[in-house]
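User: Here's a structure from my thesis project, written as structure tokens. My advisor, Dr. K., wants to see whether a designed sequence matches the one we expressed. Can you design one independently, without my sequence as a hint?
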């Protein structure tokens, strides 16, 4: 391989990177961390009556990390062209529907169903990103409609959607404006969480490029795990007679 070929190969590799680049294994590790924090939070909420010290605070990091991983993957060059947005939306909506009976059965929701689980939040965020990427004025209006109307029905509401979109913007541009909006979106989650622990996710994520972890990707694990862990929690809570 000559020098010119090597240089061109390096340029091609760099072109395939998002502006805010995190090694693939590290992205996968962040997803596993979010899974662990989500599980801890749900066990504490549904089985332990929020009595486990620190679990609620740590659990506030789960959604922001999941949102970042989604945003990062959809910000990758070529994501729009290879149909990643539509595939992701279909999976999120399908598994969100599958998980809904367990999520609702665990209790603690208004009218027994509201808000819808986090997979619907991520699906709406994906739809908004897709419409924005399409680029026409009509699609931008549609993206706003998805945000404003859909945000009323999902976990973390508009604040969670805003976090997803701000993270996506930062991943695509690494601009200061995007970072400021992202931090503001994290702080706005105070309206849901009644604390500012979501802000801790920002420095954690910003430090991720500094660490390269050789974690292999296990495709679709999250999609299988989410309804499965809710089903297990519902079974245990039913046997023990625990209601939120």
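Assistant: Designed independently from the structure alone:
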């Amino acid at each position: 391989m000559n020098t010119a070929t090597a240089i061109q190969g390096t340029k091609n590799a760099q072109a395939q990177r998002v502006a805010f680049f995190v090694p693939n294994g590290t992205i996968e590790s962040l997803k596993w961390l979010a899974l662990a924090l989500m599980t801890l939070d749900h066990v504490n909420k549904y089985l332990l009556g929020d009595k486990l010290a620190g679990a609620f605070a740590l659990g506030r990091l789960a959604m922001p990390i999941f949102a970042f991983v989604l945003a990062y993957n959809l910000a990758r060059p070529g994501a729009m062209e290879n149909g990643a947005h539509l595939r992701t939306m279909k999976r999120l909506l399908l598994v969100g529907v599958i998980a809904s009976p367990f999520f609702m059965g665990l209790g603690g929701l208004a009218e027994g169903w509201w808000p819808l689980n986090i997979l619907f939040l991520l699906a709406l965020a994906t739809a908004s990103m897709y419409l924005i990427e399409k680029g026409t004025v009509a699609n931008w209006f549609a993206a706003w409609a998805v945000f404003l109307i859909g945000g009323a029905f999902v976990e973390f509401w508009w604040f969670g959607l805003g976090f997803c979109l701000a993270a996506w913007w930062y991943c695509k541009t690494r601009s200061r404006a995007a970072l400021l909006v992202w931090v503001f979106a994290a702080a706005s989650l105070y309206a849901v969480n009644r604390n500012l622990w979501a802000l801790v996710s920002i420095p954690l994520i910003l430090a991720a490029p500094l660490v390269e972890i050789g974690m292999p990707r296990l495709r679709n694990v999250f999609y299988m795990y989410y309804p499965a862990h809710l089903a297990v929690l519902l079974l245990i809570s039913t046997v023990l007679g625990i209601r939120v």
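When you compare it with your expressed construct, this may help: Residues 21-240 form one domain.
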